[in-house]
Amino acid sequence: MNAGRHRGRGRQPVITSDIRVRHIARATQNAHNRRLPYTEIAELEDIQLGRKALRGAFEGAGYHRRVAQVKPFLTERNKERRLAWEDQFHDWC
After folding, report:
1. Cβ contacts of residue 64 below 8 Å, gap of 6+?
2. Please, where are the H alpha helices in 1-93?
């Protein structure tokens, strides 16, 4: 084996950096595109890759999709209880 030469091992990446940059640019272009599934964005760019490869490309670039949690509004009862607590303990500070 040659001492100064390193042969790459393992599978070659399916998605190149050029394709990754193009795909992420299209996905983050506007609010509508940010909501599209990865596969639909790939179709807009004529990229033939699987869902897992596309997801991995985004994760590798630091993008992660999350669903925002719905936080319930305060009810009248909770508002009254908070005010009562504040009246009781306002001198703590």
Report:
1. 58
2. 17-27, 31-34, 38-44, 51-60, 76-89
Q: Are 14 and 49 in contact (CB under 8 A)?
A: yes
pLDDT in tens, 63-91: 888 888 999 999 999 999 999 999 999 88
For residue 87, the tally of other CB atoms under 10 A from its CB is 8
- Largest Cα separation within the chain, whole Å, is 80
> Within 10 A of 44 (CB to CB), how many other CB atoms are there?
13
The tens digit of pLDDT for each residue in 23-61 reads 889 888 998 988 889 889 889 888 888 888 888 888 888
HSE of 88, CA atoms in CB hemisphere, 13 A: 6
User: To which residue do tokens 């640019």 refer?
Assistant: 25
